[in-house]
Write a structure and sequence with these properties.
Distance between the termini: 55 Å
Number of strands: 7
Shape: rod-shaped
Helix content: over 70%
Structural class: alpha+beta
Strand content: 5-15%
Length: about 375
């Protein structure tokens, strides 16, 4: 069930990546479309106001021609109608630009221009004479409105630091936040996936490197370490450790008792022996202590600490489990850094310690110093 849950969670996490990429793509398209829409509004606004200024210039010019008797009333009225129509078109177009509300007084300015242009319409409709003084005053006001529109166009809409430009970029930034959020989500998801992969890699490595019951190093890890040291010809030695009468404990107290004993023994190994080197479980009740460099005296001192700790029987379900160790050691240099010989001689020394019931570590070289022992081995 746990494995199924892990797979479902992995599928869910990995599916978030393409979904987030789609979100980034969609939000990026939204930013691009927003940019082009805002640019379209900006160009239309600039050209609308520019055409309005041109129409005002044409009307002022036609009015001056009329004052100089170089143009007829009909021609002036036609130009006036063109200005009115252009003003209506501009007012309609500018309502589509969302950023014009940020330009101060533009709407009021256009409203005043429209009202002022409309003020002379009755003179044309009723056929009243356009007096020179009245027409000059009207032209002067048109020139003032044209200057106001030009100032607004240059300093607020077209300027790179104007109010309109600031509103333009603010709208674009508002569209960009979704892209930023999507990218941030992607980074978080990818980071989480990397973390999960690292955790899974560490879990798999621990399964390979660690013994599942005791938490000590596994046989494969210890063999790899041994071969690595031999290839480097490092100064090291190994100690084979074996629990005495472990089978009888399993037979008399049950395998759960044996497992509990192994766990408690491993705890003692970690707290003492691992101060000098690595300890791994290489068999049911067999352990290997690989020591990069230490004197035999120092090694034996740590071993005697374990022997002392195990002199008090371990307890399991209110039962005492008598425990003792046998240990055999060999130096890698004495075996010419040959992994097979190191394991063979170390194992021989350990079984010799078990046969003689030695409470100390038996080194392989000590075996050949006794003819009696050598004969027994033979």
């Amino acid at each position: 069930m746990l494995k199924i849950t892990r797979h479902v969670r992995a599928i869910y996490q990995w599916s978030l990546v393409p979904l987030t990429l789609v979100l980034i793509y969609v939000s990026a398209l939204h930013v691009v479309s927003t940019f082009f829409a805002l640019e379209k509004y900006r160009h239309e606004t600039i050209w609308s106001l520019e055409y309005l200024n041109r129409e005002i210039d044409s009307t002022i010019h036609e009015s001056r021609l009329y004052l100089a008797n170089a143009s007829t009333r009909h021609q002036l009225h036609s130009q006036y109608q063109a200005l009115r129509n252009r003003l209506l078109i501009v007012r309609s177009n500018l309502t589509q630009d969302p950023n014009l509300s940020s330009v101060p007084n533009l709407d009021l300015m256009l409203h005043e221009l429209e009202r002022y242009v409309q003020s002379i319409n009755e003179d044309f409709i009723n056929g009243k004479d356009l007096t020179a003084a009245h027409l000059k005053l009207w032209i002067s006001s048109l020139e003032q409105h044209r200057e106001n529109i030009s100032y607004c166009l240059i300093n607020n809409i077209s300027a790179s630091k104007g109010d309109y430009t600031r509103a333009f970029w603010q709208d674009l930034l508002n569209a960009l936040w979704l892209v930023g959020l999507a990218i941030l989500s992607l980074l978080i998801i990818v980071g989480q996936l990397i973390y999960v992969l690292i955790q899974e890699q560490n879990r798999q490595r621990n399964q390979i490197e660690k013994d599942s019951l005791t938490g000590l190093y596994s046989r494969q890890f210890m063999m790899n370490k041994l071969n690595e040291f031999c290839q480097k010809k490092s100064d090291f030695c190994i100690v084979f450790l074996d629990l005495n009468k472990f089978k009888s404990i399993n037979d008399n107290y049950g395998h759960p008792a044996g497992d509990q004993l192994l766990i408690q023994i491993a705890h003692h190994f970690k707290s003492s022996l691992e101060k000098l080197g690595s300890v791994g479980r290489i068999g049911g009740d067999e352990f290997l202590w690989l020591i990069p460099y230490a004197s035999p005296t120092e090694i034996n001192e740590h071993y005697q600490q374990i022997v002392h700790n195990l002199s008090t029987p371990l307890r399991f379900n209110d039962q005492q489990l008598p425990t003792s160790l046998s240990a055999g050691a060999v130096s890698a240099a004495a075996c010419n850094y040959n992994p097979s010989l190191i394991l063979e001689y170390g194992d021989t020394a350990m079984y010799w310690a078990k046969t003689t019931h030695s409470s100390s570590i038996v080194w392989y070289g000590e075996i050949h110093q006794s003819k009696t022992l050598a004969a027994s081995i033979g």
